[in-house]
Fold this sequence. Notes:
Mean pLDDT: 94
Strand content: 15-25%
Oligomer: single chain
Number of strands: 16
Bound molecules: adenosine-5'-triphosphate, magnesium ion
Strand order of the largest sheet: 1-5-6-11-10-9-7-8
Largest sheet: 8 strands, mixed
Amino acid sequence: MSIINAPRGTRDILPAESWKWSYIIKTAGEVMKNFNFSEILIPIFEHTELFSRGVGETTDIVEKEMYTFIDRGERSITLRPEATAGVMRAAIENNLCAQGNFAKLWSWGPMFRYERPQKGRYRQFYQIDAECLGVAGSSADIEIISMSLELFRRLGLKNLEVVLNSVGCEKCRPVYREKLLNYFNAHKKDLCETCLTRLDRNPLRILDCKKENCGKISDDAPDIYESLCDGCRNHFEEVKTGLENLGFAYRINKRLVRGLDYYTKTAFEILSGDLGAQNAVCGGGRYDNLASSIGGGKIPGVGFACGLDRVVIVMEEQNCSFGKIPAPDVFIIANENNKASAQILTYKLRSAGISAVNDIAGRSFKNQMRSAGLCKYACIIDQDKNKNKNKIILKDMAEGSQIEINQDEIINYLNGKL
Length: 418
Ligand code: ATP
Ligand code: MG
């Protein structure tokens, strides 16, 4: 029979890698705690409408990247391509922002997009998400951006760039849209095919086009800052000042519009100089109209999504530390005759919160000794030679020194050492 492989664009994160992922998630959890964000777990699939209405019909995600299927109850279901819409849905459904309350939430997990797989781009990928819901003021934007930067600082990422823009709001964006439409219509003949379809549907997206020609045209397109209303302009200035107060450098890019319709005001990305084409490790911004587009009234929000797969790539390239390589503290070595004693002692240590292993595969004494090389201690049960059945040898693998110790004293001894 033929071998069944993982579907295209998915991959297994094997034990040699998964501990690095755990380290990043653990670090993210600590940062979130310091910033007072609480964890939320949301479904991996949602009603398709949540994304078509929330993310936007004319976005790349909804137009061509969603994993959508009809379930056995004949509902249209979509594997989540991003987390923000789901978190907002959960907040609305559970009244987290009722009566002027606000909610600071974070989550992490797999997202699904039907994309062309390449380095840093997969069909199942992972994001760490943070969302601050119910706060309209710029303090929330500053908190979100600084939190993502604090996470990267703790992970030791270097060579990052914060790119910032404002995409306006429902008041000023239509005016800007009109200006853009006029401008791009005048340059219609030089736009790529995709951008031609964007012209009527969503001209802002043309600014985001990676094709050289479209880029050149976009560089000279009308500037959004001239169209921003007072509210959006002030908000943008406050975000910039807030970042400066915290000592963060940023670059303004008027062509940063991001791939999702729900953004208002602040849009930002964090780029890595060590990622090649897929260079964004984090993207985010404000989305004051998302709640109303999914029927939830007025709940402003701002958040970020950090691409875990790409963070791992950058950390590896930059030789960042992932903490300690996981290995048991103690290896209990015994020959076949003492298998039961080894099992009992290992279980005792484990129950006392000490990570311990014994041989379960019938390996020779010599092979067990070799495996113990990764551990802090080797514990040798050699009752054939020893008269006193309670005595074992405890070897400090780093120092090479060894002592004889009673079995019932070993937990106390190790607790003092580990
Ligand atoms: P890109 O321009 O790279 O396609 P995007 O704007 O579609 O990114 P967002 O929706 O903002 O991405 O998602 C936030 C982050 O999630 C990105 O900055 C990136 O790190 C990561 N990401 C997005 N799509 C993928 C993917 N297919 N594979 C791996 N990581 C991804
Ligand atoms: Mg994308």
